[in-house]
């Protein structure tokens, strides 16, 4: 195939936190694929990338549903894969956009895995992760010296969560939007609740930074919320 697919990380939300490589590639893209979870959900990644696109670039917002129905998921993935393949067969330069970094909890990972079975050219362009941006925003060092830093999806099971926290000096808790009270309880048991901060929608206009997470009733967690925590103070 003559076309090429670029998996492009556009950063956490701040329009200026996008790499020069990503910007330069977007200027020469024929088709932009922006994943969405539903018909009523706008693509944040697309809003970040849009100022850098050439005027005649085609924009496609493909739906990747958030559902536990495997048949529905498989059908959507297969249809979207075939659609992207058809663009590449036409020799198009295609950008698949993703918030943060393409290789971290990203829809792009599944697309990459499916397309890798075909004779296509793919290039992945890294992006700034939400937790790195959140750490800078909150002045919260992620790790120093011999610290063990663990990235944990807050959606994982209780036992897995507890085990990961137990062996870590510092943690990044991503996907913090449900079961916040239980999560804070686990952090307290593991000595991680006293030195922690929650950043929601980092880099977005409605960003929030909450430095006291010990009272779950005061926390306003949304889909793009991340907690940074450590067992020892930063010493700053």
**Total count of helical runs of at least 4 residues:** 7
> What value does the average pLDDT take?
89
Which sheet architecture does the biggest sheet show?
5 strands, parallel
CATH architecture of the largest domain: 3-Layer(aba) Sandwich
The low-confidence runs, each spanning 5 or more residues with pLDDT under 50, are none
Description:
The radius of gyration is 19 Å and the shape is elongated. Strands 3-2-4-1-5 form a 5-stranded parallel beta sheet, sandwiched between helices. It folds into 2 domains: about 5-125, Tetrapyrrole methylase, N-terminal domain (Cobalt-precorrin-4 Transmethylase, domain 1, 3-Layer(aba) Sandwich); about 130-230, Methyltransferase, Cobalt-precorrin-4 Transmethylase, Domain 2 (2-Layer Sandwich), CATH 3.30.950. By secondary structure, it is of the alpha/beta class. Strand 8 and strand 9 (about 210) form a beta hairpin. It has helices at about 20-25, 45-50, 70-90, 105-115, 130-140, 160-165, 180-190, and strands at about 5-10, 30-35, 60, 95-100, 120-125, 150-155, 170-175, 195-200, 210, 225-230. Helix content is about 30%, strand content about 20%. The mean pLDDT is about 90. The protein contains 7 helices and 10 strands. Pathway: Cofactor biosynthesis; adenosylcobalamin biosynthesis. InterPro entries: 4pyrrol_Mease (IPR000878), 4pyrrol_Methylase_sf (IPR035996), 4pyrrole_Mease_sub1 (IPR014777), 4pyrrole_Mease_sub2 (IPR014776), CobI/CbiL (IPR012382), CobI/CbiL/CobIJ_dom (IPR006364). Belongs to the precorrin methyltransferase family.
